[in-house]
Amino acid sequence: MGKKAEQKKEYILEKAREVFIKKGYANVTMKDIVSACDISRGGLYLYFSSTKEIFLTLFRREARERTEAVEMAMWEEMTAWRILNDTISQYKEELLGFKPTMAYAVYEFFLENEDERVVRQWQFDGMAEAIREILDYGIENEEFNPVDTNQWGRHIAMFLEGLALTMPVMQFPPERIDEQIYLLLQPLMRKPKALKAPYIMEQTV
Amino acid sequence: MGKKAEQKKEYILEKAREVFIKKGYANVTMKDIVSACDISRGGLYLYFSSTKEIFLTLFRREARERTEAVEMAMWEEMTAWRILNDTISQYKEELLGFKPTMAYAVYEFFLENEDERVVRQWQFDGMAEAIREILDYGIENEEFNPVDTNQWGRHIAMFLEGLALTMPVMQFPPERIDEQIYLLLQPLMRKPKALKAPYIMEQTV
Amino acid sequence: MGKKAEQKKEYILEKAREVFIKKGYANVTMKDIVSACDISRGGLYLYFSSTKEIFLTLFRREARERTEAVEMAMWEEMTAWRILNDTISQYKEELLGFKPTMAYAVYEFFLENEDERVVRQWQFDGMAEAIREILDYGIENEEFNPVDTNQWGRHIAMFLEGLALTMPVMQFPPERIDEQIYLLLQPLMRKPKALKAPYIMEQTV
Amino acid sequence: MGKKAEQKKEYILEKAREVFIKKGYANVTMKDIVSACDISRGGLYLYFSSTKEIFLTLFRREARERTEAVEMAMWEEMTAWRILNDTISQYKEELLGFKPTMAYAVYEFFLENEDERVVRQWQFDGMAEAIREILDYGIENEEFNPVDTNQWGRHIAMFLEGLALTMPVMQFPPERIDEQIYLLLQPLMRKPKALKAPYIMEQTV
DNA sequence: CATGAATGAGAGTTCATTCAT
DNA sequence: GATGAATGAACTCTCATTCAT
């Protein structure tokens, strides 16, 4: 495939992402994506042969990017707080609608495609693992209380997923997101009393 | 509407529920429900005119029942622990697949029907409120540490939703669910150290 | 399925037959049949779900009818000549276009559907077997020379198929068909010299 | 057209032939041929503008070659038996799958293209004529019984076509082909009793 | 000459919805 | 009330054919 084809593929993925964000997964048709891309019906099939293929391509990439961001941050020797915070902040932006999310589409997709669930698990495990690493790092630095970081990795990862799915529908205000994150992370903090919501913001700056 | 018609409607809802559990919302067609009910195609339209109408009827009822269960328990003067535990246990059963759940269908539905999100919010608020009441009750009895029960009501409600959506796809073992609930509730416990996972079970008995 | 549905199915088969006669098999679309039947696109799918299904239904029936006709004639104790002649005459009518034939469609179908060839074989064997019975009967009556009737059953059956496929395209005149049948059957005749083409006709009367 | 273009055209015809043998005519698309030739989509159109054009080119050539083979043999003063036998043997090889045949494609083509049937007729007549010449030659040499060689030329030509169309689907064993040819040619033989099947083979050697 | 991306017509198929019975 | 046949819109997917490069 030439460079131009690669670009076109990229363009289609980008447009398709917008469609998935807007309509979830199950209701998206090839026609929808065709319209969004402003190409011909047959043209899309030159690059992808189903919504499923498009979706999986997008999903795998996003999962990879998300965990890579964490690894990258660790490499740069930022404080554990800062890293955890950035990670969660990215979610926050999505939750607040500043940056749209495919969370729904993801859920619809894996509901419909039972045989692909291993991909989903892989993504979740990757996320949990990345968070575990941050926590280990933070405990070592005496930033966090010592806890079972395997369990807490999963806990935070799962909480973030729940938040991602609940918030868009609920349309909670930003403060409420901070509130929830505060409750989640409190047990990790060495001196929780000293922190005030939205403490995440304070820490960041 | 006669009594017989009422029964038929009830029957249809029951069967439709099974379909939603199995296929989510977006992929369910009137034809699916017709098949599940073993009723004529036109016949279904005498009672409901769309999957949306059927779904909303079911959803409103379930939301009501769930909060009512909590209220009922409070009325019976059970311990806060017992009530919270029963509530969470019901989720656990669903999560472990012993009792099927419409969680996915719910998410799909509200994704597709933006204008109905207020209903979803009402349901979530009802759940959070019910949990808040349990917490207030437990704090009063000195079963729980004093916390902001409004925040914690939402926190637990949201966590349960996240769990409900994550677990079915992940196929985690029961211990992991206990582990997660433990991490969630730990800050509420007066003597967390004394509790071992699966502490929920221990408390129950 | 009610009686009316049965009639409709019959009607569709009848119309579809005309389409297959006219266009063969491979080029026939569900849309063609829909047009021929003057029903809606979706309507056809209530009765048949593919051209393949329609074709096989027609084919099986025709094969059955053709061999049944032979059995029936034997039962009525007609002379072997008369029976063989009638059988061949039916082909002749088809060949001359007085009665249209699906021969082409049959060939196209079994080319395309290798896995159904056993059906074709069953039909051919049935035909060969029926002719063998006529020959045995005729030899017993001393109408025919004694020959290996198994071989000759296949020989005549195969010849008729070849004729059916060649004639429509060739547009040979009726005399030429008689000529060919004469050459085919000559070795069976006890006094071939005494017969003149179109001897089949003479025998019939 | 330059020499190189001529070669390319030749190459395309060769590959297209393989496709027609495998898939008949009606189901063959320009795309199939493009794939088989490993050529660009637009490239094919520089040489041929439809499957029909390609097919007709192939068909005309094959018809010519087949009759030429007969003429050539006569020229070499082989015995009529030997020539007839070689001609039929070539068919046999095709029938047994040792040498693939376009027979099906031919039938499909002329079904679909009524206006081209004159070409088919021309080919059949050519074949019948070639066989007639062999028979005349054989009668003159007193190899065959005297018969109406016009009729018999058509008879044998038609029989071979029938065989070609029936056998591939039926998957008959080689002996059965010999059996059938024996029944066909028997009336021509001066002393048929002396011949045993597969007599064709015996004669050849 | 040659390429292969792009187009759009058209086939298959499914269902929501209607309506005569 | 209840049925299920019938309709037609919408969607998926494939290819013949064109055209810029």
Question: TL;DR of this structure?
Answer:
Four copies of one chain form a homotetramer. Chain A has helices at 3-23, 30-37, 41-45, 51-75, 80-95, 103-112, 117-140, 149-170, 174-185, 199-204. Chain A is mostly helical and 205 residues long.
Give structural notes.
The structure is a homotetramer of 205-residue chains. The first copy, chain A, has 205 residues and is an all-alpha fold. Chain A has a single domain, classed as Tetracycline Repressor, domain 2. Helix content of chain A is 73%, strand content 0%. The first copy, chain A, has 10 helices and no strands. Chain A has helices spanning 3-23, 30-37, 41-45, 51-75, 80-95, 103-112, 117-140, 149-170, 174-185, 199-204. In chain A, helix 5 runs antiparallel to helix 7. The longest helix of chain A has 25 residues, at 51-75. Chain A is elongated and about 60 Å long. Chain A starts with a helix and ends with a helix. In chain A, 38% of the residues are buried. The model of chain A is unreliable at 192-205 (pLDDT under 50).
